[in-house]
Amino acid sequence: MAGIHSSLVQKAKDVLRERGFGEDEIIPEFKFKKYKIDVVGWKKSGVKVAVECGNVSLSKLEELQNYFDEVIHIPHSTYVLDLPKSRRVESGSFLTLSREDAGLKRIVDYVYGNHPKRQLLKAKGAIVIKFLREGPKTLSELAVRLGLDLKKPAELSQFYAALRPLRETGMISTHRSQGKTFYALSYASFRFALEQLRKDAEYWLKEEGT
Amino acid sequence: MEAKSGVDRLLELAYGNHPKSASLKPEGLKVLKTLRESGAQNMEQLFGVLGLDPNSANGRKHFYLLLRPLRETGMIATRRAGGKAVYYLSYEGFSQFLREIRKEAEYWLVPEEPKG
Predict the structure, then answer these.
(1) With contacts defined as CB-CB under 8 Å, which chain A residues touch B94?
(2) Which fold has domain B6-108?
(3) Buried/exposed code over A101-118 (b: 16+ C-beta within 10 A; e: otherwise)
(4) How do residues A1-47 score in pLDDT, each as one tens digit?
(5) Residues lower than pLDDT 50 in chain A
(6) How far, in Å, CA of A25 to CA of A119, rounded?
(7) Is residue A141 part of a domain?
(8) A36 close contact with B: CB closer than 8 A
(9) For B16, nearest residue in chain A (alpha carbons)
(10) Which ipTM was obtained for this model?
């Protein structure tokens, strides 16, 4: 397990290097308040990025978000993007969104809003969308991809908290087959939700009498 | 659960669910209603509608904070008239905002073709 962790730490350093942090700006095992952060990138300009590897509590990530410009979590089951070249993101796509992924960011921003408690869920939402682009997945496949153990009540509630906004906006739907629940992307129902907004705007964003 | 009205959906999209920005929704509604019922308004007129003091730094800060989400989503736009900025509703601007989201959704919410 230690070997796996050190390889994740190595990945964390690579991510920071790719983001322009120099060797002297990358600090492993950074002590901060009551925590030890796996790797911190601290630029001379003041930009600070915290990277946590492997298992980490949500509350730790949430608290770090208050002090760092960006908090990245690299889970054990590192997710490798499989996108067409035109949309490929070379790094920084673990549980954080890279700037190149602006389109997906726009969508998850729309879905999760700007509530502080929902910020960490955005990264999970992005992973769900990317994963479901491969095709429908079962509940347990999704949980594994998200690195969540559904037998633990806290992680089960995290799972549903991450998926609820996607369902509410119609982006994903479920169906039962062979006794299992399958999750799938649903462009049609999301488009319906957008159409509803357009109709609202037709009334509210035109001056009366025009 | 209470059903959301059309304007609630628009305001939620603009201001989001952050407690601080969501608290601006009632004033955002006032802006939309005024622009809808009375047409384009200049800054002084909107300050008056909102009961804000244009001469105080806090009043101006609040005004821009309040209007920024509506401008960023294209719901309202400005033009210059008689040397003054005039705010008006922009269905076109908002439609463009929706089109951009739809374009992204077209890519991200449609499963990839199986390889091979």
Answers:
(1) 201, 205
(2) Arc Repressor Mutant, subunit A (1.10.10)
(3) beebbbbbbbbbbbeeeb
(4) 456 678 788 888 988 888 888 989 999 999 888 889 999 999 888 88
(5) 1, 77-95, 97-100
(6) 26
(7) no
(8) no
(9) A113
(10) 0.90
